[in-house]
Structure formats: C-alpha cells, structure tokens
Amino acid sequence: MFGQVPAENDTVLRRMVFVREEQSYPDFRVGHAIRVASWFYPNWNEELAQQLLADFDLPLGRRIKRLSRGMRSAVGIVIGLAARAELTLFDEPYADLDAVARQLFYDRLLAEFAEYPRTVVLSTHLIDEVADLLEHVVMFDHGRVVLDAPADDVRGTGMTVSGPATSVEEFVAGCTVWHRHRHRHRLGSRASVSIADSLDFATQARVRAMHLSVETLSLQQLLVHAAGISADEKVSA
Amino acid sequence: MTYVAMPWGIMTFSFLVNVVISASTPTGPNGIYTGGLATIYCFLLVCGTLSMTRSLPFGLMLGVSRRNYYLGTALLVVVLGVVYGLGLTLLQLVERATGGWNLSLHFFRVPWIMDGPWYQTWLTSFVILVLFFLYGMWYGLVYRRWSLLGLVAFIAAQVVVALVVVVVVSMTHNWHAVGQFFATVTVPTLTAVLAGIAVVLGLGGFTTLRRVTV
Predict the structure, then answer these.
(1) How far is residue B55 CA from its own chain's centroid?
(2) pLDDT, tens digit, for every residue of A22-70?
(3) What is the mean pLDDT of residues A207-214?
(4) Is A25 part of the contact surface with chain B (CB cutoff 8 Å)?
(5) What are the pLDDT digits (tens) for B65-92?
(6) Mean per-residue pLDDT over chain A, rounded
(7) Contact A131, A218 (CB under 8 A)
(8) Domain A157-216 fold
C-alpha cells in the first residue's frame, strides 16, 4: 500500500483511517473524540466535522458510552469523513443507522468524494443503497473472491423477462437462465425468468416484438446471482 | 478522569477511613500501621489494563501503529510515575513531620521500604507505580489477544513459574540463600530488582501486542 508494507508502518498508517462497526472508545465525550482524531490527520477538516456533527444531531458533551448504537456509529463516520485520509476504509459502520441517517451518510460521502477525491473502500450488506456510488465491486463468498470487476461492467448484465410462458421460453432459449420465478396467483400460463443478458437495442426490439415485459436486475440481484453461480460451480466441481 | 482522579480519589478515601479508625481506637505504643497505600498501586494496575482494552481500539482506528501506542502509553506511565511518586514522597514527609498526622498513623511511611530518605522513597514509589501499570497493561493485552481463556492461562502460567522456582530452590537446598538475600537486601537493591521485573513485564506486554487484533 502506497508502495510499502502496511503492517506497523507509521508513514502508511498515517494516511489511512479505518472506521468499523462496534468501534469501542475510551471514556471520552463526543467532543473529545473528535478533537483527538483531529490531531492525527494532516488533512483534517474541522468545518466539515462540525457540520457533520450537526447533521447527525450528535451532542458534543455527552459521553460516548451513553450514546445509542446509531449515534455511536455516527461518531465513527464523522471521524472517517472529516479525516480526509487518502485511504478511507468503512467496515459497515452504518449498519446501525436508520434510513434517514444512512442516506445522509451516502450524500455526504459523495459530496466529500467530489470535493476531495480519495480512495474509499466500503463493505456493506445493503448493496442497492450504495449501488450508484460504486466504481469497483469485489464480492466475497465464504472467504473467496467471487467477483472482482468495475461496477459498470457488472451493471445491466442481467434482466427479468415476463410474459406468456411460451413466448418467454422462446425468448430465453439459448441464454443463461439464472432463476425461474414461480407465480401462484396468475391465471393462465405466464412465466418470469431472470437471465444473463444485457438490454441492448437488438434485445429490446425482440422483447417488443414478442410482447414481453422486461426489467433490468439491480446490482444487488446481480451479485446474489453471481454468488449462486459460484456455489453451483463448487458443487459440480 | 480514570488516570488522575480515580487513583488519588481511592487512595484518599482509604486514607480517610484509616484516619477515622486510628482516631477512634486506642493507639498502641508503636502507632498504627496500615496497608492502605496499596490501593493506589492496585488501581494503577487497573488503569494499565484499561489502557490496553479500551483505548487501544480507538488508537488503531486513527492509524496509530501498535508499537507507537505501546511506547506512548509507557512514556505516559513514566511521567505519571515521576509525578505521583513525588506526590507520595511529599505526603510521606508531611506524615513524618506531623508525627503520623498527630495520630501516629503510618499510612505513607511503609516500614523499611518507604521510610527512608525522600529521594529513595521517590525512586521506589516510581518503580513500583510503573511496575504495577505495566503489569496491568500486559493483562489487558493478554485479554485482548486470547480473551478470557487466555487470561486464565496467563495467570496459571505465572503460578507455574513460581512453582518451578520454589521446586528448584528446594531441590538445590537453597532456601538458606534465599532467606539470606531477603534478610540482608537493602532498599536500593530491591528497587533495582523491581525495576528489572518492570522491564521484563514491559517487554512481555510488547511481544503480546504484536498480534493483537481489534
């Protein structure tokens, strides 16, 4: 990292910040923790820290031990963003935040990234929420890397086709089928199948011609399928 | 604050309790000797443990290397040891001057080891304070690295070491020499031995630190 081995390397460690979920703090108040963090980062932006504290509604004088889980995560996020470290690592610190706070985090993260670009690595289980923020995706399944690609290469590579069963079957013949959805409430024979195919002009035309409806799969669904595929490969191997 | 208010607060409390007791009970001819001073040392052990269990994850978050964190804490301990040792020495002098707080109470004048000249008391207090803190730090690190089971194993290991020493001394019939040592050792020598033990504890904690994960 930065051309050197990072373990116990002060010059490298100085340039990164690691925000984790379940971060434990010493017996500090919120204001203390922020002040201490500001000593460690040359690029620290105090204005941003204060603004974020106000946005997340964090009381400066309260002991961190007495904060709710969500607020404690917010403290970590404030430090992580205001540090403006060249390598910023977020290990699901927003897992305890409510939806409003999470959205606030994503917005601030994007704004911060635009104003002060840096390498941000975040791990998450809430893929759809960050899908638009990602430039590169790495997915782990049982400790192995299952997918490692630029996000743009992954987006749009799958879709769900729905319509009369026979037309759908004709359409998906020859494509990699990921999943056949079962419909219990439909009358008549209708089907809905997820396949690996991108919605280019030719495909769109075919869809229209056969009177089918199509929906591109979200990044989350694509990754779920990718994990499913790798599991099958393991079984067959 | 954990490092300043609590050690002194607890010791002051113990001191006041001893004052009340010695004021309300008839005093023997030699005055009253109490071990209440031990409270500040024991609490420094607790502080040492806390420094590695509660503050270390925060330090690691901010990109402090483990080595720096350890050395920084050790430096803090040395400074604390000097300052607190001085405080204890001054209290000892006041106690001597007031004849045991007018009650013949020996709280800060521990017989033999802390009853001598002020510089000796300062040095000995310093060494013992630092020793307890470093010992506490090692406990904290063992707990972080190997959790409760490891902590118990750590204590068991120390007991085994003591056991081995006892067995070896017995088998080589050296109890006489040991007794001789303890009977003739002077305070400076003992202080030096304690300082050596403190260094060993410091190094032990450092090796445990290398692979502590958060």
Answers:
(1) 21
(2) 888 888 889 989 999 998 888 899 999 999 999 999 998 899 889 988 8
(3) 82
(4) yes
(5) 888 888 988 998 999 889 888 888 888 8
(6) 83
(7) yes
(8) Alpha-Beta Plaits (3.30.70)
In this prediction the pTM is 0.77
Phi-psi region of A128 (alpha: psi -120 to 50; beta: other; left: phi over 0): alpha
- How far apart are the CA of A40 and the nearest CA of chain B, in angstroms? 7
Chain-chain contact of B54 with A76 (C-beta, under 8 angstroms): no
- Phi and psi, residue A191, nearest 5°: -140, 160
Q: Say whether B128 sits in a helix, a strand or coil.
A: helix
Distance CA B100, CA B82 (A): 24
Of A63, A52, A136, A60, which is closest to residue A97 (Cα–Cα)?
A52
| Residues forming a β-bridge with A87 | A16, A119
Instruction: Count Cβ atoms below 10 Å from residue A26 Cβ, excluding itself.
Output: 19
Tell me the nearest-neighbour CA distance from B130 into chain A, angstroms: 21
Q: How many angstroms separate the CA atoms of B63 and B58, rounded?
A: 9
Q: What is the mean pLDDT of chain B?
A: 85
What's the rounded mean pLDDT across residues A77-81?
91
- Answer whether A40 touches B (CB < 8 Å): yes
Q: What is the mean pLDDT of residues A149-162?
A: 83
Distance CA A183, CA A224 (A): 20
Contact (CB, 8 A) for A49 and A34: yes
CA distance B61 to A28: 15
Contacts 24+ apart (CB under 8 A), A8-15: A8/B65, A8/B66, A8/B67, A9/B65, A10/B65, A10/B68, A13/B63, A13/B64, A13/B65, A14/A40, A14/A42, A14/B63, A15/A85, A15/A86, A15/A87, A15/B63
Q: How big is chain A by its Cα radius of gyration, in Å?
A: 23
Domain residues of chain A, as ranges? 10-125, 157-216
Identify the pLDDT of residue A11: 81
The tokens for B93 are 């002098």
Q: What is the pLDDT of residues B50-71, one digit of tens each?
A: 888 888 888 888 888 888 888 9
**Is the CATH number 3.20.190.10 carried by domain A10-125?**
no
Q: Where are the domains of chain B?
A: 5-209
Cβ pair A24:B54 closer than 8 A: yes
